[in-house]
Amino acid sequence: MSRLGVSAAQVGRQVVRGDVDIDGNRITAVGVLPAGRGGIAVPGFIDLQVNGFGGVDFLNADVESYRRAGDALLSTGVTSYQPTLVSSPEKVLHEAIDTVAAAATRTHPRILGVHLEGPFIDPAFKGAHDERYIVAPDIAYADRLCSSGRVTTMTIAPEQPGGGELLDRLVRRGVIVSIGHSGADATAAHSAFNRGARWVTHLHNAQRRFAARDPGIAGVAMTRADVTIGVIADLVHLSRETVLLAFLAAPGRISLVTDAIAAAPSSTGEFFLGDRTVIVSSGAARLADGTLAGSLLSMDLAVRNLVELGIPWPRAVRAATEVPARLFGRPELGTLRPGTPADIVVLDDELRVARTIAAGQVAWAA
Ligand code: ZN
């Protein structure tokens, strides 16, 4: 057994004063007195949308690259993630999915599964996706992509012809369906959520705009208690006010994602997102035509950005932990309680990552 030496721990919605004990890969006690002085323990961050990190692009990665990306993610407090693959040729997707399966044998950070962002999206809202690889909803193709069992989330445009049937199929397969890169209006969005879609991919980005009498996906998602909303809080994809508005409208339902690319967290120059060249400068990643192409965000910075906007830190942390864990169906990964996995981030007074503990082991320390 070991003791973390922290002064407090986030346990569900409460911050409990006292230290944390772990034994093996489990937490055995919280609120242990006397409290330590070495920061605050919060659950390990969960990133359900990340295209690459630490110089690694997941569409082009081998198993060794996943090790490097994983170490870089651990340094930002991420202990669980879904590698995210944008619309690409089928062969490339199959190879990338197979690589995830091989990489997932490593213990930490946990690879929860694959998030396929596309290829069944609306070309009119393609964002940085390559239009050549976007296809109409195709159940046979989706079945082939999902046949390995590694695909856990898929972003689709449900309003496309055949999109409803595709959605039904994915829900039956147990895949989390997210609406994104989509022109769905409010009626189509309600219909998709009623059929089992549960998430929104990067709120307000690459989707039909919110308007007074046409609130679209964003307006519907913010009003429905059964929908979780992905937000890129890099303050590039969304303005400060837009991020705050989402938190005010949908408390407890915002899941932070980084949508990071290989250049994250801190490189500049030219990088790849699949086979597309992305130019990184001034804190943004863009295609040559200026379209935003993922982010340079890290999860710890996303949390600090929220706090800087005035959101209390425990709520900001929950958007990176409890909310995505619940959406993913692994609530035990999003809280610190006796019996839950010892995936823990120790934050200092400025909410910087001091230590990351994954499956009970110190996986990174400042
Ligand atoms: Zn996207």
Describe how the helices and strands are arranged.
Elements: E1 2-3, E2 8-11, E3 14-17, E4 19-23, E5 26-32, E6 40-43, E7 45-50, E8 52-53, E9 56-57, H1 63-74, E10 78-86, H2 90-103, E11 110-111, E12 114-117, H3 139-146, E13 151-156, H4 163-172, E14 176-179, H5 186-194, E15 199-200, H6 216-223, E16 228-232, H7 240-249, E17 254-257, E18 269-273, E19 276-281, E20 284-286, H8 299-308, H9 313-319, H10 322-328, E21 344-347, E22 353-358, E23 361-365
Parallel strand pairs: 2-6, 7-10, 10-11, 10-12, 12-13, 13-14, 14-15, 15-16, 16-17
Antiparallel strand pairs: 1-4, 2-3, 4-5, 6-21, 8-9, 18-19, 19-20, 21-22, 22-23
The site of zinc ion (ZN) has 6 residues, from loops.
Give the radius of gyration: 19 Å
Helical proportion? 25-40%
Strand count, sense and closure of the main sheet?
9 strands, parallel
**Kindly, what is the distance between the CA atoms of the first and last residues, rounded to a whole number of angstroms?**
23 Å
What is the strand tally? 23
Task: Summarize the structure in words.
By secondary structure, the protein is of the alpha/beta class. It is 26% helix and 28% strand. It has 10 helices and 23 strands. It has helices at residues 63-74, 90-103, 139-146, 163-172, 186-194, 216-223, 240-249, 299-308, 313-319, 322-328; strands at residues 2-3, 8-11, 14-17, 19-23, 26-32, 40-43, 45-50, 52-53, 56-57, 78-86, 110-111, 114-117, 151-156, 176-179, 199-200, 228-232, 254-257, 269-273, 276-281, 284-286, 344-347, 353-358, 361-365. The strands form 5 sheets. Strands 7, 10, 11, 12, 13, 14, 15, 16 and 17 form a 9-stranded parallel sheet that branches. α1 crosses α2 (90-103), α5 (186-194) packs across α6 and α8 packs antiparallel against α9. Zinc ion binds next to loops. Zinc ion is lined by residues 117, 127, 181, 201-202, 206.
